[in-house]
Amino acid sequence: MSKLFLIPTPIGNLKDITYRAVEILSNVDLILAEDTRHTGTLLKHYNIRSHLQSHHMFNEHKAVESVCTKIRSERPLPL
């Protein structure tokens, strides 16, 4: 079954993240991030290879419907 996780990420110190957050980010098919540069730094630091996609107020209207459809379909998201 597909799920949506909302994971807060640290601002500033990369060590200010929980073990559970790192585990979830490592095991999801897709990560949506407001700023992919900062999130990319975090993912690289923890060697997380999940697919990363930009998602912010200027592009959310284009992406939200397809992401919701993929979640509802209960199939893994394509990378």
Summarize the structure.
By secondary structure, the chain is of the alpha+beta class.
Strand and helix layout:
Layout: H1 19-27, E1 30-33, H2 36-45, E2 51-54, H3 60-72
Parallel strand pairs: 1-2
Write a concise keyword list for the protein shown above:
79 residues, alpha+beta, 2 strands
Mean pLDDT: 84
Rg result: 13 Å
Shape: globular
Which percent band covers the strand fraction? Answer: 5-15%
Decide which structural class fits the backbone: alpha+beta
Strand order of the largest sheet: 1-2
Order of helices and strands: HEHEH
Major sheet summary line: 2 strands, parallel
Distance N to C terminus: 17 Å
Q: Would you give an account of this structure?
A:
The chain has 79 residues and is α+β, with helices and mostly antiparallel strands. It has 3 helices and 2 strands. A two-stranded parallel sheet has the order 1-2. Helix 2 links the parallel strand 1 and strand 2. It has a domain of 50 residues. Helix content is 41%, strand content 10%.
